[in-house]
Design brief:
alpha+beta; 9-stranded mixed β-sheet; 778 residues; 20 helices; 6 domains
């Protein structure tokens, strides 16, 4: 009988450490795993490969910190998410070990070191290792055969498909750098094989498992089959940590390795189920085991559940796991408890998990709780629909019903599909899309989108698209310009007369339009014949700015030259509030943690309102710390600087961008010394000292995981304290005390009230007893 014993059992965390230490000994810089959120790479939603964060080094866009680098990179792939749980192979979260050379060593070292690590460091049996190469890569064959000493018959050549021209052992992605690959397979033995006599490297069964892949980037491809040698050749190595652990621990699948088994066992403990007893239960157990890892790491990297982008990927993963938990019979919210096991198993390699665990638990619990409120009702409705389909002999759920589940019960389309597929049904996707479009069209017709004075949006849609407005209000609050368009509430007109409400559009304006959370300016527009009071300034499509208000005297016509003057006092107040908001966001991140992200904001002349991601009410101590930090920065009199640069340049400076916001080729970056740096198109003070003072007046929750702070600045702070002082004096007068003795007087009055209440209760009790005695005597 075949003996399948590896040299030694190594845990996943130990394997990660051994790999990085080995390549450090070969002159590599061991770099920490990059975030799952791609940096400066719009082509990716999430990091999905070990080399993905290193692309700028391979392309020459950035200079690497060293020409030899090694990493263990966390990755997310959801392309096959529907197969996760159904097989023992598929994962959404995995770790990729990699050693990389940027124009330094090449094939000889890469091949020798891969063999050395597997055979000498890990102790794998040489006779179970099988290299593969690109069919035409004779250089790699010679290294494996002549230098390493692998027999020729154990080296598998993979050639291009004669019809498609594709080859698994030649890496290329359109035009650009490319090259041959050399993989190393481990023979796990006949028990994992398919039983076919021709079973060999490349077979789809689980006997020969790929554990290492060296990519030799040595060509520049033109995308049409032509290749030229690169002057700088690179090495890109990938090895799945989970797969390596399967080999080293001699287990059946990735769900059986030590770290995954710990999570799997916790799922079984929570559900009361046993693994490998019921096939359907196994699907749910594996799915939850994988998905909780993905969710934990995604939240740790600052990804929040939402309805779009990577936030939707996270929401989908959490909700799939939550549903399968219910299918296993787990009562109530469970994912945060399960995440604790993930953190315990992975904190050696990722200590930030332990640091952020409370935040991770809160995000998971709130998202699971939110889903729990809709899933029961949605499942009940879907069950009724299934019964009706069975009665009608129908196998496809109508798009209208699928949309009803989505629109009314918050049931995602993919979840409806998944549930129905489990029972042999499908969904009319085209019908769903049509129902969605009908709803959007109806909503557009029903919705009255109005500006400040009530003008219908269609008025502005009728304006000539070539009309634009240039904003010149960063440096000046006054300018002369020509009037290009005038409208009333319902139509475009040639003139506005005294008393008429309408909108004025000009070629240039110092008026800031409401956007980015900052209220639009107010002020006056004057012509030789009339005066228009601007009550609001709005941003219109096509780069136009609308000045909305009322004619207060005379008249003005299209083509008139106008003097535009912004209300300077109001603008100053808005600037103070806006600049204070930048200081506030940075202070919150310092006090609460870097998970704090802007969720919304609004600044007018009265106050600033800032919504941010956080999952607990702030304590008085936290509020005091934040307030002190902001006031300290105001007192430091920090110059406020604005720079215009490309988005890439801005990100390199470390400037904070609003997540999910779309930016043009250039952006404005507002800096307050080294303390705060943000993308921002708004208006600001020239120096933080202009803000004068900052006071938080409220903090409360506005949505799941979103808190809101309202605060005052400048004269509004002093007015706030004057009002408090007035109320204090009135309260002291009513209590016949002074402000200094008011607290003592209130405490004394409370004690008197308590004593009188107690005495009153005693008298009532005594009277009741006496009355009862009189009744008994009769």
């Amino acid at each position: 009988m075949e003996e399948l014993v590896v040299k030694k059992f190594y845990g996943e965390n130990e394997l990660r450490r051994m790999y990085l230490e080995f390549f450090e000994s070969k002159g590599h810089l061991a770099m920490k795993s990059f975030s799952l959120v791609p940096h400066n790479d719009n082509s990716l939603l999430l990091i999905n490969a070990g080399m993905a964060p290193l692309k700028p080094y391979f392309t020459g866009q950035e200079i690497p910190p060293r020409r030899r680098v090694t990493t263990c990179q966390k990755c997310i792939r959801t392309g096959d998410i529907e197969n996760v749980g159904k097989t023992a192979r598929h994962l959404t979260f995995f770790e990729m070990l990699g050693n990389f050379s940027f124009g330094d060593y090449f094939k000889h070292e890469a091949i020798h070191w891969s063999w050395e690590f597997l055979t000498q460091v890990l102790g794998l049996e040489e006779d179970r290792l099988y290299p593969s190469i690109y069919g035409e890569d004779d250089e790699a064959f010679e290294i494996w055969n002549k230098e390493v000493g692998v027999p020729a018959e154990k080296i598998t050549r993979f050639y291009r498909d004669p019809e498609t021209g594709e080859c698994d052992n030649f890496w290329e992605h359109g035009a650009g750098p490319c090259g041959p690959c050399s993989e190393i397979y481990y023979d796990r033995g006949e028990k994992y094989g398919c039983g076919k006599p021709d079973c060999k490297v490349g077979c789809d069964c689980d006997r020969f498992m790929e554990v290492w892949n060296n990519v030799f980037t040595q060509f520049e491809g033109d995308g049409k089959g032509g290749y030229t040698e690169l002057a700088q050749k690179n090495i890109d190595t990938g090895m799945g940590l989970e797969r390596l652990a399967v080999v080293m621990q001699d287990v059946d699948s990735v769900f059986d390795i030590d770290t995954m088994k710990a999570i799997r066992d916790k799922v079984c403990e929570m559900s009361g189920k046993k693994y490998q007893v019921d096939a359907l239960d196994d699907v749910s157990i594996r799915l939850i085991t994988d998905h909780i890892r993905s969710a934990t790491f995604m939240i740790s990297d600052g990804i929040m559940p939402s309805n779009e982008g990577r936030g939707y990927v996270l929401r989908r993963i959490i909700r799939r796991a939550a549903r399968h938990g219910r299918m296993l019979g787990i009562d109530g919210i469970f994912m945060a408890k399960l995440a604790a096991t993930v953190i315990n198993e992975s904190k050696d390699g990722y200590p930030e998990l332990e640091e952020k665990k409370d935040f991770i638990f809160k995000v998971l619990s709130q998202e699971e709780e939110k889903f729990g409120k809709t899933i029961d009702q949605g499942l009940s409705i879907l069950s009724d629909m299934e019964k009706q389909m069975e009665a009608d002999g129908v196998k496809v759920l109508s798009g209208e019903n699928a949309f009803k589940l989505y629109d009314t019960y918050g049931f995602p389309m993919d979840l409806t599909q998944e549930i129905l597929e489990e029972k042999g049904f499908s969904v009319d996707e085209e019908g769903f899309k049509k129902a969605m479009e009908v709803q959007r069209t109806t909503a557009r017709k029903a919705r009255k989108v109005t500006n400040y004075m009530g003008a219908d949006e269609t008025v502005y849609e009728s304006v000539d698209p070539s009309v634009t407005t240039e904003f010149v209000g960063y440096d000046s609050l006054n300018c002369k310009s020509k009037i290009t368009v005038l409208t009333t509430e319902t139509e475009i007109v040639e003139a506005l007369s005294d008393g008429e409400v309408g909108t004025v559009i000009v070629e240039q304006t110092p008026f800031y339009a409401t956007m980015g959370g900052q209220q639009g300016d107010k002020g006056i527009i004057r012509t030789a014949a009339g005066e228009f009071q601007v009550e609001d300034t709005i941003k219109l499509l096509g780069g136009k700015v609308g000045h909305v208000g009322k004619m207060i005297s005379g008249m003005m016509k299209t083509g008139d030259e106008a003097d535009l003057s912004v209300d300077a006092a109001l603008r100053a107040k808005i600037c103070k509030n806006h600049s204070a908001t930048h200081l506030l966001q940075k202070a919150l991140r310092e006090v609460l943690g870097t998970h704090v992200e802007q969720a919304g904001s609004y600044q007018d002349g009265e106050r600033t309102r800032f919504d941010f991601s956080h999952f607990a009410a702030m304590t008085p101590e936290e509020l005091e710390k934040v307030e002190k930090i902001v006031n300290d920065k105001i007192a430091e009199a920090i110059p406020v600087r604005t720079d215009v640069m490309t988005v890439d340049e801005a990100k390199k400076t470390g400037a904070m961008a609003l997540f999910g916001e779309k930016y043009g080729e250039t952006v404005r970056v507002v800096s307050m010394g080294d303390f705060s740096k943000e993308f921002c198109g708004g208006t600001h003070v020239k120096n933080t000292s202009e803000i004068a003072a900052f006071k938080i007046i409220s903090e409360n929750g506005v949505a799941a995981g979103v808190r809101r702070i309202e605060a005052l600045t400048g004269d509004n702070v002093f007015a706030y304290y004057r009002n408090l002082e007035k109320e204090l004096l009135e309260a002291a007068k009513a209590a016949k005390a002074t402000p200094a003795t008011l607290t003592e007087k209130i405490e004394h009055m409370q004690a008197e009230i308590k004593a009188l209440t107690s005495e009153n209760e005693s008298l009532k009790s005594k009277a009741a007893k006496e009355a009862l005695g009189d009744v008994m005597d009769q």
